[in-house]
Prior knowledge:
The protein is mainly alpha-helical. It is 73% helix and 0% strand.
Amino acid sequence: MTTLVVLSVILIALLIAGLAIYLFIVGSQLTRVATLLEECGQIVWKIKRDADAIEPGLQSINNTGGVVAGALPLLYGMAEGIVTGATYEPEPEDHERPPALPAMGRRRSRLHEGVGYFPEG
């Protein structure tokens, strides 16, 4: 019977040691989480201070956004009118095109001037 008592005491001691190690690990992790949450709390308060500075101008921003939103249908209609006027319409197949001409008319060579020859005068 003494062996059974000794083994029971050893098992209880091991159980208590295991629980102590487990609680130490969980406690250290909770301490780390608490530190991170404290830092997050400070960041949140900083964001709130920044938002408090923006809040008075928010009504003006919303009014301006409403004016812009009200003008969008008009701007959209004007843009549609511009696009309709600029839409490419191909010429019919039976239409004969004249030969292409240079945009500036007859070309004039500058090679003459390079050698000292001026044909106009």
